[in-house]
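User: quick one, fold this
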Amino acid sequence: MSRRRTSTRNKIAVASWRPSSDGRIYTRMELDASAVLAYVDRVRSESGERVTITHVVGAALGRALHQVPEVRARILLGRRLDLDTCDVGFAVDIEGGSDLAPVKVRDIDQLSPLEVARALGAGASQLRAGEDVAYRRTSGIVRWAPSWAVRPALAVASIVAGGLGRPVLGQPGFPLGTAFVSNVGSLGLDEAFLAPLPFARTPVYLAIGAVQDKAVVVDGEVVVRPVVVLVATADHRIVDGSHAGQLAAILRDLVLHPDRLDSSA
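Assistant:
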């Protein structure tokens, strides 16, 4: 019987998750994507860069994290510890789409969508070319380690990298940043709730769904508009309903008015 090669991501997933017992808060919102799609087309035309809705949402999320500092934290040994930065990780497909890896964009609250696109593009190119040292080290360790050893190794990484922000076992400090974004629409999904990766201790996960034409009400009339669904999963020990509402309001406003993202926070 043939046996398929297990991806690095899958092996980490098997060693990471047990039946859920931690509190999670979930939310979703549908947004009219007309303005953001027009903005993306304009910036692409002017810059020649492949700017996408992912870069706009990432920049908007950075501004939201900056303005709601209470959600920039992690839990370590039962204590809530603040995170000072607004770094956001993005899921990037590698190895021909058979695996995923993260690219962290630092201080994203200070970047325009175009600058996010350039930073994320550079990181993705490094990953796909096998030039990302941290990912190469981690992949090597996970690939060759026996399955029974991966869970305790991740427990160490959870405390050192995810909790203390120090590099260990090839992982950089705070490997996924203050929040993590994945464009599941590019995978053909209308929407999805992301499963948090425990060892990263990242408080907010955001999934961007596929853009679809839907009937919406505008000025009292039903019209067809492109709509995108944003779905968030957050650590309820850090993020409560009030914080989620503030994040959602800022995110909604900036996605509906993306030109505002061309200036720093």
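User: anything notable?
Assistant: The chain is about 35% helix and 25% strand.
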